[in-house]
Amino acid sequence: MKPFIVTKTIKETPDVTTVYFADKNGAHPSFKSGQYLTVYFDNLESSSGKAYSLSSLPSDESMSISVKAIGAYSNQICSLKPGNQIVVSKPYGSLYEYNSRPLVCIAGGIGISPIWSIIRSVLAINPEQPVKLLYSNRAKSGIVFHEPINNLVNRHQSFGATYYITGQDETTLGKDSVIGRIDIDKIIAELPIDAQFIVCGSTNFVRGIYSQLKASDIPDELISTETFFGI
Ligand SMILES: Cc1cc2nc3c(=O)[nH]c(=O)nc-3n(C[C@H](O)[C@H](O)[C@H](O)COP(=O)(O)OP(=O)(O)OC[C@H]3O[C@@H](n4cnc5c(N)ncnc54)[C@H](O)[C@@H]3O)c2cc1C
């Protein structure tokens, strides 16, 4: 566990903030996209800290976590300001190992955090690699990294994103959006053959998508999941 200095914060949506941090020399430990670290606050009850996925690219100057404010830990992270200290563990976890298979990333809400890092890493290694993002949120205003995702879609023919809006939404939705839940059975024929699937979100979301992937005969070795409890 080591102290880092917050270099920048960005409010991505009304309740999600990305916090960037680096050590006092402006460096950070190496990590793989898809990994997470533990954040520790000694004024809060959970002395073993809480896990947060890295949303930045390994090559970025600062590392970042993108956090939805729902409770004590997440609110304290979201209220950090540049210059504040944040104590974190080394990065760990193994959600994704780069390979040349087409990639289908399925995110619910803040489950986009590690996926945003993975998608950009894969396209940096091979700009032609087919990558598809299926991203579910209650409302359009909850889509984290909405503009950067759209910019990436515009820059890469091999990358496509579909937004699923599951709640009532008064705002206009684009052609890239679907009202309702992700229905794998409906879209499986449009997804790349032999793709690897990465699923990340709340327990219910990950369970639901995993069951759908199994029902579509996707083998376990092609499915990686990460569950963010309770969000
Ligand atoms: C591997 C991993 C990576 C993660 N990455 C991220 C990330 O990138 N961004 C992010 O915002 N969060 C992430 N999380 C979730 C994060 O670790 C915290 O659990 C979250 O921020 C809530 O902590 P809190 O102290 O703010 O809220 P808490 O006080 O723990 O809880 C707030 C609300 O969530 C409910 N809740 C909490 N835990 C559970 C549970 N186990 N089951 C059901 N309901 C529960 C509580 O009932 C309460 O209503 C990740 C979790 C894991 C395991």
Structure summary:
The chain is of the alpha/beta class. The protein has 5 helices and 12 strands. β11, α5 and β12 form a beta-alpha-beta unit.
Runs with pLDDT <50, length 5+?
Answer: none
Beta-strand content estimate = 25-35%
Structural class: alpha/beta
How many extended strands? 12
Terminal residue distance: 26 Å
Major sheet: size, sense and barrel closure? 6 strands, antiparallel
**What ligand species are in this complex?**
flavin-adenine dinucleotide
H and E order: EEEEEHEEHEHEEHEHE
Kindly state the mean pLDDT as a whole number? 94
Secondary structure: helix percent: 10-25%
Q: Categorize the overall geometry.
A: globular
Rg, nearest Å = 17 Å
The number of helical segments is: 5
Query: Main sheet: which strands, in order across?
Result: 4-3-6-1-2-5
Can you tell me about this structure?
The chain has five helices and twelve strands. With 231 residues, it is of the alpha/beta class. It is globular, with a radius of gyration of 17 Å. The strands form two sheets. It has a six-stranded antiparallel beta sheet, with helices on one face. A six-stranded parallel beta sheet has the order 10-9-8-7-11-12, with helices on both faces. The protein binds flavin-adenine dinucleotide. Flavin-adenine dinucleotide is lined by residues 36, 50-53, 65-68, 70-74, 110, 113, 226, 228-230.
